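During the second year of the project, the team shifted from modelling isolated chains to modelling whole assemblies. The rationale, set out in the original proposal, was that interfaces cannot be judged from single-chain predictions alone. As a representative example for this report, we include one of the complexes processed in the last quarter. Its constituent sequences, exactly as entered into the pipeline, are reproduced here:
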Amino acid sequence: MGFTVVVAADRKRGIGKDGTLPWKIKGDMRWFREATTCPDTSEVLARYAMNIGLMDKRTHTWESLTSRIGGARPLPDWTPGARNAVLMGRKTWESLPPRFRPLPGRLNGVISRTVTPGVFHGSHHVWPSLQASLDELGRDPTVKHVFVTGGGEIFKEALARPDCARILITTIDAEYPCDVFLPEFGPEYKEIAISPNLVEDGVGYRFRLLERDSGGV
Ligand SMILES: NC(=O)c1ccc[n+]([C@@H]2O[C@H](COP(=O)([O-])OP(=O)(O)OC[C@H]3O[C@@H](n4cnc5c(N)ncnc54)[C@H](OP(=O)(O)O)[C@@H]3O)[C@@H](O)[C@H]2O)c1
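Output from the structure prediction step:
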């Protein structure tokens, strides 16, 4: 099944340091939570278009993104019988503070060669490869979208796959000391939506949506 990569990166494509995130940007944490939890991706885009001016790059307006809805309304983050999955490398899973995992409202999947596959701690699934996780999730009719959420090792494999249909990237206009970086990805990913510059604690950032040419989630 097609999947979406979700990542935040600084000016030098840095994404992590000492097993954790180098920054704390609440607006980005909210975007991550809402985008990965809501089973209807177009609702998320419409809401962000309306609230912050996320713009369709193809039309240079935000109206195209909001055309589906008549006005601002609460984002449904739970649809009975449907949920999204978030897949992450074992190190990213371990980087989440125990009180925040599993990430609520989403099926949490961990990719690892060293942890025994199966349901682990009763809270999340462990798969021995990205392929195995996508195969199994593709057979689960309750899973609406799959998000690959890092870290560096998993992004490298995910971005090179033809079934990586979308990238939701938050670009942070600052430089942090980092030891994990987002791999380069090719021109087959085209930017289709972009937010205005948002600022939090003096740090600027933007949400961007890229779609793979042949993609479509
Ligand atoms: N800025 C962001 O958007 C973002 C997002 C997520 C994470 N991060 C940061 O990224 C850093 C972690 O990234 P990382 O690259 O060090 O680690 P990672 O990708 O999270 O996890 C690496 C682990 O995943 C497993 N793995 C990787 N490729 C695999 C494969 N092909 N098959 C099976 N298992 C595989 C292995 O686990 P085993 O060793 O158990 O086999 C490997 O050690 C942290 O600093 C985190 O905070 C940033």
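Residues 3-212 form a domain with the Dihydrofolate Reductase, subunit A fold (CATH 3.40.430.10). Helices lie at 26-37, 41-52, 63-66, 90-95, 130-138, 152-159.
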